[in-house]
Amino acid sequence: MEESRASSLPVGAAGAAGAAAAPRAAGGEARPETPRERRRRRTREDLVAATLQVIGEFGDADLTIDRVSAASGISRGTIYAHFPDGRDELLSGAYAELARDLIARTSSAAALATDWRDSIVAHAEAMLELAGDARIGHFFNVSGPALIVDGAARGIGSGASALMIRDELAAASAAGLIDPGLDAASTARLLVGAIRESAIAVVRDGADPAASLAAFGRLVAGLERREPPRAIRMPPEALRDAATAP
């Protein structure tokens, strides 16, 4: 099962924080980084980490280039050299890094799950844990999606979760554990929507994460296939007695 989950991740979903794609040789094969490429990648990673630090301390609305510069120890000019669009590009990189980290944590928890239900619930548990961080949770679930309307960063986490949950449902269906007529892809999208809305409710409305997780667990358990109750066969004399009873 672990192999199918890993193969479901979108290309680049598990990449380094805010880094560019791995360098490729002319034939398309990955090649070792040059010292310059390594320095560039590490600088971008440091800037994304500093952006998340500032968001955690002040919130994304109060993110400034000066604060990122102070947190990272990197000059404004170097920041713009790596992130030409400035604040918006830093926010996009921070959002993508949160999504990649969420995928990694969810994948690890799902791989340790004892059955398909726990594997799916692991997605909600990781998201609700992230939502418990007031500023970071608000950025990832409320303000971030509104700021990042397109680009590679948008939909990384939800897309990966939908694919992994789809695979779990398909495997459970093939094993006869859930209704074989269930549409795994459509159900996975609905479950991801429920996870996202639950996280938003925690961040924005103060909903109880534990109650939300328990409710999601019951929702997933409701997909389990249950045999219809068997009809009780009564002997003929019992049927006659029941029919003539006053």
From TrEMBL:
Biased composition (Low complexity): 12-29
Keywords carried by this UniProt record: DNA-binding, Transcription, Transcription regulation
Domain HTH tetR-type residue range list: 41-101
Keyword Transcription regulation: yes
One GO MF term attached to the UniProt entry: DNA-binding transcription factor activity
Gene3D superfamilies cross-referenced by the UniProt entry: Tetracycline Repressor, domain 2 (1.10.357.10)
Protein name in the entry: TetR/AcrR family transcriptional regulator
Organism: Leucobacter edaphi
